[in-house]
Amino acid sequence: MSLVSDQEWEEYKSKFNKAYSDDEDKMRRERYIKSKQMVEEHNKKYESGEVTWKMAINHLSDLTEEEYAMRCGKKVTPPTAT
């Protein structure tokens, strides 16, 4: 978790009024790190003119893909058993 300092993670949670149990906190921090990486990679493309808009961290940055889809009104189909 070296990409996000403890201070940065605590500031994110404080800014968006988030509190988690220890186990959930670890998972949410990992999701936040992935979101931060995605934002940074996208914004490099913005800086080089490959895309026309910037991304930013927000209150959704610690959600799983399924949670994000549900909040955005997308239907999530569960995987089929094999």
UniProtKB/TrEMBL annotation:
Domain of life assignment: Eukaryota
Pfam families recorded: Inhibitor_I29
Domain Cathepsin propeptide inhibitor: 9-68
Gene3D superfamilies, alphabetized: 1.10.287.2250
Protein name in the entry: (Mediterranean fruit fly) hypothetical protein
